[in-house]
Specification:
Layout (H helix, E strand, L loop, with lengths): L2 H21 L4 H33 L7 E14 L2 E12 L5 E2 L1 H6 L9 H11 L4 H6 L12 H9 L19 E8 L2 E2 L5 E2 L2 E6 L2 E2 L5 E2 L3 E5 L4 H15 L7 E6 L3 H9 L3 E5 L1 H12 L4 H12 L2 H13 L4 H16 L1 H9 L9 H13 L8 H15 L4 H10 L9 H21 L9 H14 L1
Length: 464
């Protein structure tokens, strides 16, 4: 193994490019493009050297692979990395007891038997996919390394290998003492590839709105996904609240939404909870039936504010009687039923003035879910909707998707190591070669200039 000799030529070319730029002058844009290409070549060479050195250590140190015997050598593996495609040779081992076969260095690097993309590059495309289509996410790494592009199908498979469930409750912290919490909820409607419409739920917990910060939510925490059992989602919400807030000090949890049954399920799960109807939805129904500029519309809202349900129902009955088309009759009947089912949520605004913050669930669904899932003409699978909505919630929680992806996939991996004697020999070669090359660079010849003095000081510092 000759790591230094293999890499030094590429590194020497990079140094020469830099020196040309600062000494002779070059087209800077062209310089950047060429430099990136050279750095990618150096990165690929470094990855190859590290992997092959680790494989050599496994070959020569039997105690580090007890029970594994060499089957064959020099199997070629091709893997896509952020630097581009890396090809390296490794050894195939067989476990004596179970007859299992494997390339052990691949396992140490986190590569499965059929892996074609490494964890670092997968993390990049998964992060990009939270904002871009799978196809565009796969193309994005190609801006840095042309042959690092991957297909949309590869991006999808990388996301499928991302366990998002464990992020739902968040990490532990000192419990806060807060008297009132707000839980807002709504759903998106996403077109499926099978013609169905999927409804990912969005629930978020917060401590109210900060008037000094344009009514931004205080300490919001978002949850999203497809749930066949809505109680499961609410249990995650309860788990988060119990982990982060002193339940003995907490007096009230306001559950705010449009009155859907899945939202009201939260009242059964969350203690000290009160339902608050999002008045935007009530107003929309009243406008459909009574028309915004009518006297009946104003009377209806006056009666609602006074808690006079009888008057509201009378106005809606009259609207049904005098309706000119059948559809208006049905809308009036539906509106009466809606008010009857959600009257407690309407009255919560009078009983609990602190609950009347103005629900923002529609806007949050648009920003967090619809912007990626339903605002564009695309079809999703149920699994894709579930995973993407969870990823979008993580992003809203200020979680770095790529970092989390890497952390999850590096768990349990053993460090890659080379032979100690090889490392010592290569260090010595590095010192000798570095000294010989830097002393012979053209920029170090001739009269002493500030540039030459500066480069010489860096050179000797790096060698010694």
């Amino acid at each position: 193994m000759q790591i230094v000799q293999q890499m030094w030529t590429r590194f020497h070319g990079i140094v020469e490019s830099v020196l040309d730029a600062v000494d002779k002058g070059v087209d800077y844009v062209g310089f950047e493009k060429n430099l990136r290409k050279q750095l990618n070549e150096l990165g690929r060479e470094a990855c190859k050297s590290v992997l092959e050195a680790a494989d050599q250590r496994l070959v020569e140190h039997r105690e580090e692979r007890p029970g594994w015997r060499i089957q064959r050598r020099d199997d070629v593996k091709s893997i896509l990395t952020p630097f581009g495609r890396v090809e390296y040779r490794r050894t195939y081992f067989k476990y004596a007891k179970t007859k299992e076969c494997a390339h052990l260095v691949d396992r140490q690097a986190g590569y499965g038997p059929h892996a074609r993309i490494d964890v670092a590059l997968a993390a990049e495309v998964v992060e990009a996919a939270s904002e871009l289509s799978y196809r565009k996410s796969g193309e994005k790494p190609g801006r840095a390394a042309p042959d690092a592009r991957v297909s949309g199908q590869t991006v999808m498979k990388a996301i499928r290998g991302f366990d998002l469930e464990e992020e739902a409750s968040g990490g532990r912290r000192e419990k806060k003492r807060c008297e009132t919490l707000y839980v807002e909820a709504d759903e998106d409607h996403v077109a499926g590839q099978d013609g169905r419409t999927y409804m990912p739920f969005l629930v978020y917990v917060h401590e109210g709105k900060d008037e000094s910060q344009r009514r931004r939510l205080k300490m919001p925490r978002y949850f999203s996904g497809l749930y066949s059992e809505t109680e499961e989602l609410w249990l995650w919400v309860l788990n988060y609240i119990e982990e982060h807030y002193d339940m003995n000090f907490l007096k009230r949890i306001f559950v705010c939404g449009d009155g859907a049954s899945w939202i009201k399920t939260g009242l059964k799960v969350l203690p000290k909870s009160v339902f608050v109807l999002d008045m935007f939805h009530l107003n929309r129904r009243l406008v459909e039936v009574l028309k915004r500029d009518s006297e009946e519309y104003r009377k209806a809202w006056k009666a609602i504010r006074a808690g006079d349900r009888v008057t509201v129902e009378r106005l809606l009955k009259e609207a049904a009687v005098f309706a000119e088309i059948p559809n208006q009759v049905k809308m009036a009947q539906d509106c009466r039923r809606y008010i009857r089912l959600n009257w407690d949520g309407i009255m919560a605004h009078r009983v609990h003035p602190e609950a009347d913050l103005g629900v923002s669930a529609e806007g949050h669904v648009s920003h967090i879910l619809s912007a990626r899932l339903s605002s564009r003409p695309m079809g999703w699978s149920a699994k894709g909707v579930d995973q993407m909505s969870r990823m979008r919630a993580l992003k809203a929680n200020q979680v770095e998707i790529g970092v989390k992806y890497v952390e999850q996939h590096r768990r349990g991996l053993s460090p890659l190591k080379a032979l100690s004697e090889v490392v010592s020999r290569e260090r010595e070669v590095l010192r000798r070669v570095a000294g010989e090359v830097t002393d012979n660079l053209p920029v170090f010849a001739g009269k002493v200039t500030p540039l030459r003095h500066w480069l010489m000081s860096i050179s000797h510092a790096s060698i010694w």
